[in-house]
Amino acid sequence: MERVVLIANHRTEVDWMYMWDLALRKGCLGYIKFVLKSSLMKLPIFGWGFHILEFIPVERKWEIDEPILRQMLSTFANPLDPLWLAVFPEGTDFTEQKCKRNQKFAAENGLPVLKNVLLPKTKGFCTCLEILRGSLDAGCYSVFNVETKQFEVNGIHGNENINKPLAVTSRVISAMVTWERCGVEFPVGNLIKLYAGISYEKGLGSIYDITIAYKHRCPSFVDNLCGVDPSEVHIHVQRIPIKEMPLSESEAATWLINAFQHKDELLSQFVAEGHFPQQGIEEELSTFKGLVNFSVVVALTGIFVFLTFCSSIWFKIYIGFACAYLSFATYLNFRPLPVLGIGKPMLCN
């Protein structure tokens, strides 16, 4: 599973729904995480869900957001964990009034004057790139014609005896120990199985540059809720391998501004022609599967509501403490270390 950072234009307040839909269609719904404004984390119940799903809250003030962003991104740095990190670099949804203010700022500062998107805020994106680059570029290795191989990594000795060919693809972690014969980097201090015939390819992580457009008019949250609009959602996706991304912050910032200039051109073309270039059509999602999933969610919700109000006093106390904890953790952005995260170093030592 490829680890990616998604950057998208923020056309309306419901763009995130279609990012979720894209993740669902690509089998990555469970891996998508959003950078979102912190006020949404204060919503009852929904904010708890955002907190549990590890969404990153931002105040849109860099001196406040930088330490939070860095701390949260560091928890996503394990290249073994699938990740779709969705970022809206504009920082707010598009309106004509915001666009006019943005155009004035761009003209005064020698930046591109855009009509269909706002100028992106570059610091957050550059920080994502800085912290996650190593894990996005972790690569993979494949094992073919496996034979017995002695190895020693960081003082650990061992051997593997496999007498039949395999074809395995796995994720590996970039670190400080290199097995010179195979040219593969492995994590220090871990027990490593080394085989003859390993081929290694870097640069499998990517940036997905996503441009969202709506036919006829942009939908509101109420439009979505009532099934009125949009009649069509068009999504243009460009994949940029992480190895092609600039290394310095200034060059990455320039790349992002150029990417949004290209988005602006794509959206102008969409307005004129009604579609993106070389556009295809995704298959319809299964109505049957949707109904089954909806029924399961409704049934589980009903069961837990029933247990909350009609079960023993101890269950009610448990639910009360759970709600109080989630309210406290969400409001203060408190995130305890996971039990597995604490246990792994103990097991490795």
TrEMBL record:
<keyword id="KW-1133">Transmembrane helix</keyword>
<feature type="transmembrane region" description="Helical">
    <location>
        <begin position="315"/>
        <end position="334"/>
    </location>
</feature>
<feature type="domain" description="Phospholipid/glycerol acyltransferase">
    <location>
        <begin position="4"/>
        <end position="118"/>
    </location>
</feature>
<dbReference type="Pfam" id="PF16076">
    <property type="entry name" value="Acyltransf_C"/>
</dbReference>
<dbReference type="InterPro" id="IPR032098">
    <property type="entry name" value="Acyltransf_C"/>
</dbReference>
<dbReference type="GO" id="GO:0003841">
    <property type="term" value="F:1-acylglycerol-3-phosphate O-acyltransferase activity"/>
</dbReference>
<comment type="pathway">
    <text>Lipid metabolism.</text>
</comment>
<keyword id="KW-0012">Acyltransferase</keyword>
<comment type="similarity">
    <text>Belongs to the 1-acyl-sn-glycerol-3-phosphate acyltransferase family.</text>
</comment>
<dbReference type="GO" id="GO:0012505">
    <property type="term" value="C:endomembrane system"/>
</dbReference>
<protein>
    <recommendedName>
        <fullName>1-acylglycerol-3-phosphate O-acyltransferase</fullName>
        <ecNumber>2.3.1.51</ecNumber>
    </recommendedName>
</protein>
<keyword id="KW-0472">Membrane</keyword>
<keyword id="KW-0808">Transferase</keyword>
<comment type="pathway">
    <text>Phospholipid metabolism; CDP-diacylglycerol biosynthesis; CDP-diacylglycerol from sn-glycerol 3-phosphate: step 2/3.</text>
</comment>
<dbReference type="InterPro" id="IPR002123">
    <property type="entry name" value="Plipid/glycerol_acylTrfase"/>
</dbReference>
<keyword id="KW-0812">Transmembrane</keyword>
<dbReference type="Pfam" id="PF01553">
    <property type="entry name" value="Acyltransferase"/>
</dbReference>
<feature type="transmembrane region" description="Helical">
    <location>
        <begin position="291"/>
        <end position="309"/>
    </location>
</feature>
